[in-house]
């Protein structure tokens, strides 16, 4: 007998399976003698209630779902690892999912999470208020959004990064190095709130920080062709420095620049969002506007646990974590 | 009424909750009239059975657990993404966990997975036959090991990488470039079967492939101090080329070499296991012995699905995926 079931207890105690089930759930009408017999038999046989069965009765499963767009993106891998670490420290098991930036897969995972009756979820959402997100909100599952905000989901607390402090500092530093025509690589096809916020913040900040400067905004998607074409357009516009809103774009563009023999930090300066490990390992090292992924992960977990404890009726808290600039070798004096 | 429960159906149909539950499960003794009334009421109210409740009755939840040591390690992030992609294509939801190379966390996640009654699991295991792994095997959960093998778990099919083809090719190429004293960085503290196999394969292959050569094997752990000390010992032994068994060690060592002004691909040649994106982005690009993570992920999923279909009593299949060498700029002619 590998595992004791209520069937084993019923057989041993000479009562029906239904009686065992009801007694162990403190339900039904049975004599105290029968109740005692069943409880003692369960204890003697070493019966352990199935975790899921227990979860259906009690509010807490000590399990939290975590959904991110893409684990191949080091930024999300770092954030997930920091959240999982923090959750484990607090006694929670983490079920991670990733959806490859596709809303249908995001919603499929969210529906599956609801079936598992987890205690709560931390989601880096894609796009708007999708069916899956609406379902979670309707079911009043404790929920926190991290990294990206969903317009219209006013009752969900969120931790997002404020792109402005790091971006303004980057423009100040580039201006000091003599850069006047500065390119910005957007990625609107991603449908990411925070990536789009960076583009808005750039357009506002360039006028403020470099009054004599020009901002050239181009857009790309996740194909090499699109990134190559965006780079071409920036080159033709005469930019001497480039800021990428989305780190996978920067990684491909660095490769494209190297391939074409364009010296990074010399012929062109480059700053990317996301402080991922690879950027510190390259030569020259890549300047970044860091969102402090670890800090955001820790804050997200703290907010979720507060939400689980206080219920979803409590007011939604929001946190803006300021970005920080790390200047490195990929930025140099502007070449005329 | 956000979600219809069996309680709602009972109220609406004027029968007991137990009756509704039994009728919807095709159990109990009721008149065909009562059965029909309950079924029609359930349908009319739009009752959707709870996924977990359904999972307790039926064998399949279309959910698979995936456990890897570390998502910050790009190699595992790539493998997990390829497995998740393949599982989604086949209609499965994936619950991912990572355990930071710690056996206690691995076992905590495995216990939690059992509570969720998933259809099966793919695990990159740490160390030996831990309690958590034994529990999974005892419960006859369809299980596949990927990347690492667990001695003693003979009934579990596995996909592991064969380190020899890529390693032998690397030694042949280094010999052609004039290297005779070749260092190997092991990482025994990891307790990883496959990383340890690489060290064994190196010691065997160096005698075979470079009869006049010397192999210098050093060991390190995951601290910068230990990696720095390992590099020192290799330098003192006069090696001109280094092969790292574990890519995070290589990444730190590349940084250490750059910091000390030692030209990679010139003063020292370096080859690492794991074909991670960062290695292709560095200058010079880093030569790698690739385990073909995508291919291993796809094979693992295929084997698990076969296992789920055929039951765990079927014979365990094993797959060795050959490693492949990708020679890049980090290897150059040996400097005397």
TrEMBL record, chains A, B:
**Which InterPro entries does the protein's record reference?**
HTH_LacI, LacI/GalR-like_sensor, Lambda_DNA-bd_dom_sf, Peripla_BP_I
Going by the UniProt record, its keywords in alphabetical order are: DNA-binding, Repressor, Transcription, Transcription regulation
Ranges that cross the membrane: none
Using the record's annotation, list all stretches that form the HTH lacI-type domain: 4-58
Q: Name one GO molecular function term.
A: transcription cis-regulatory region binding
Q: What's the protein name?
A: LacI family transcriptional regulator
Give the species this sequence originates from. Answer: Bifidobacterium felsineum
């Amino acid at each position: 007998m590998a595992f004791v079931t209520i069937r084993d207890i019923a057989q041993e105690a000479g009562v029906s399976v239904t009686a065992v089930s009801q007694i162990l759930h403190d339900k039904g009408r049975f004599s105290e003698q029968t109740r005692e017999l069943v409880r003692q038999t369960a204890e003697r046989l070493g019966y352990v209630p199935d975790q899921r069965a227990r979860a259906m009765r009690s509010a807490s499963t000590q399990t939290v779902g975590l959904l991110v767009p893409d684990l191949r993106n080091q930024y999300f891998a770092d954030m997930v690892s920091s959240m999982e670490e923090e959750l484990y420290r607090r006694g929670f098991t983490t079920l991670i999912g990733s959806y490859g930036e596709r809303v249908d897969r995001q919603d499929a995972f969210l529906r599956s999470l609801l079936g598992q009756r987890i205690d709560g979820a931390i989601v880096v959402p894609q796009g708007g208020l999708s069916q899956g997100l609406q379902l979670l909100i309707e079911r009043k599952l404790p929920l926190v959004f991290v990294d990206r905000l969903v317009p219209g989901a006013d009752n969900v607390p969120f931790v997002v990064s404020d792109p402005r402090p790091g971006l303004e500092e980057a423009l100040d530093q580039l201006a000091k190095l003599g850069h006047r025509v500065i390119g910005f690589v957007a990625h609107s096809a991603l449908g990411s709130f925070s990536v789009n916020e960076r583009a808005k913040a750039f357009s506002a900040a360039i006028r403020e920080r470099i009054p004599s400067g020009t901002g050239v905004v181009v857009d790309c998607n996740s194909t090499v062709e699109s990134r190559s074409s965006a780079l071409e357009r920036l080159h033709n516009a005469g930019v001497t420095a480039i800021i990428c809103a989305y780190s996978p774009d920067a990684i491909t563009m660095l490769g494209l620049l190297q391939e074409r023999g364009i010296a990074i930090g010399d012929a062109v300066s480059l700053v990317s969002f996301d402080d991922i490990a690879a950027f510190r390992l390259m030569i020259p090292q890549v300047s970044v506007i860091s969102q402090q992924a670890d800090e955001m992960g820790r804050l997200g977990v703290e907010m979720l646990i507060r939400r689980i404890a206080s219920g979803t009726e409590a007011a939604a808290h929001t946190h803006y974590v300021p970005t920080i600039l790390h200047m490195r070798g990929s930025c140099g004096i502007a070449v005329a």
